Amino acid sequence: MVEGKRNSHGSTPAAWTLVVLVTIGITVSTVALVFGHWVGFWIGAAIVALGVIVGAVMRAAGLGQRPRSTTPADA
Fold first, then answer.
1. 75 in a domain, yes or no?
2. 61 by DSSP, 3-state: which?
3. How many of the other CB atoms lie within 10 Å of CB of 28?
4. Coil, helix or strand at residue 4
């Protein structure tokens, strides 16, 4: 590993919020689909969409991972 560089695995509040909301949404959708409840399926899909939006807003607010700078020295 090159000194001065850190590998980040995205362990930020924005990333964890996104993961938790998407996991809950997929679980709700899956259970609803198994039991044939289409309204529950779409509620789960809405939770997934909400998770993506909340994650993006949190990242824009500075709670996400900063973009890597790409300079010729990094290449």
1. no
2. helix
3. 20
4. coil
In a domain, 30, yes or no: yes
Residue 7: the pLDDT is 65
Count of C-beta atoms within a 10 Å radius of residue 3:
4
Say what the pTM is: 0.77
Per the structure, how many domains does the chain have? 1
Tokens at 9, concatenated: 């695995």
Note the helical H segments in the chain: 13-34, 38-58
The pLDDT value recorded for residue 1 is 44
**For the chain, how many residues are written?**
75
Per-residue pLDDT averaged across 36-59, rounded?
97
* Res. 71 pLDDT band, cuts 50 70 90: low
